[in-house]
Amino acid sequence: MWPPQRPDRWRSSELPTDFYLRELVSAETTNLEYVASLMRDYGRYCSFNLEDLTDELIAAHVKSISRQPPPSEKLRAGYHRDDILLHFRTARRAVEIWTASRTPSGLEDFVDPEVTDQVLRQVQEDNEGWPNTLEDLRTSWST
Questions:
Q1: Which of the two residues, 128 and 32, has the higher pLDDT score?
Q2: Do the Cβ atoms of 2 and 81 come closer than 8 Å?
Q3: Same structural domain for residues 27 and 51?
Q4: Where on the phi/psi map is residue 89: left (φ > 0), alpha (ψ -120 to 50), or beta?
Q5: Number of DSSP helices (H) and strands (E) in the chain, helices first
Q6: Which of 73, 93, 98, 106 is the most buried (most CB within 10 A)?
Q7: How far apart are alpha carbons 101 and 103 in whole angstroms?
Q8: Dihedral sign, CA of 109, 27, 86, 99?
Q9: Statement: the pTM of the whole predicted model exceeds 0.85
Q10: Which residues span the domain enclosing 136?
């Protein structure tokens, strides 16, 4: 667990416009000390209570954490390291997608490794048989 932060101690910093872009792409996503130092030096980059993430992502994430503090202890317990890492990985993925979208055929190249028969079957189960082919899936993900 990460101890609660003290907002009254935060100080403002001027950051270059591409600061998080560079930091998220170059950082090791499992290095919690590095992530902590970023937030200690430059402030929070996420909402600690997960309110800035989708309900679907939160539900999957909560299932993956072995131990959650009871609701009555949540505020005093601090921040779960997996919550912080989830935000970091989500932000990094967003930067990767944004970067891919800025280059010709970048999105196609980005999603291509994830377009497999197994993924197609799962998507078809979730969408009543659509898409029909891997090419349909690839096209839907890259546009």
A1: 128
A2: yes
A3: yes
A4: alpha
A5: 8, 0
A6: 106
A7: 6
A8: negative
A9: no
A10: 105-143
